């Protein structure tokens, strides 16, 4: 069946429309609201840069924890370190510990009685921990424990525990150990600041330390910062040498050295011989200072009484 062809005009005239106007005045008021687009729901999408930064932090923390495990360092090590006399080796141990990293503000901690910890929550022992909580979180934990003690009359602090959401449950003794670490680190920061000011500009100099024992004998300790050597000198070679060496060993432990480079404590050798007379120790000490400060100076032979009298007047003139 063939449908007949219907010719259509090339131009179709649009229908004529009348102009319509809307007059808005006080009587003919029109209210309308612009609908805002729907808000996105659910968890906000993270940018790739933020995801990468978060992943790098997780990798760094895992690496640091594995290094602490390899060194056999955990939170129980802090207790043993703080119980002994502080020296540079203990400072190095305390510096190995890092803080927990929190990306956002944590939920308020929850305090429990040690005997009423909810089932399923693990109490973290110090041997299981390789990090320390920040000081502001420890302050919040202390406030929660204080509030719990007000509710439970007679509750001792050692019988409490605090849960850090997302981390675990810590006993009060563990939190106290962390606070002691923060106090020790604050002292170390003051030591570093003082040491930097005291040793500023003397990294390649020589330090001379006179020692006066019991008001009747002079000894000395001499430190060469270029060779990292510590010399101790007793002109009489008496029993005071033991005390001078012990002090020099303590100074060697306090000096900042690397693991493979330790200061050597040795007696200072001279050709002046043993001290002559019981009142010339100061002369020997000053001569040892001069020779240590200027190694290229000619060495003195064993001192006679006449030479000692001359040197005594020489130093007296320098004082005047």
TrEMBL record:
Molecular function in Gene Ontology: cysteine-type peptidase activity
Superkingdom to which the source organism belongs: Eukaryota
Chain segments annotated as transmembrane: none
Keyword Hydrolase attributed: yes
Bias (Basic residues): 40-55
Start and end residues of each Ubiquitin-like protease family profile domain: 59-292
GO biological process, one term: proteolysis
Region (Disordered): 24-55
Keywords for the protein's UniProt record, in alphabetical order: Hydrolase, Protease
UniProt xrefs under InterPro entries: Papain-like_cys_pep_sf, Peptidase_C48_C
Protein family membership: Belongs to the peptidase C48 family.
Record-given protein name: Ubiquitin-like protease family profile domain-containing protein
Annotated source species: Phytophthora nicotianae (Potato buckeye rot agent)
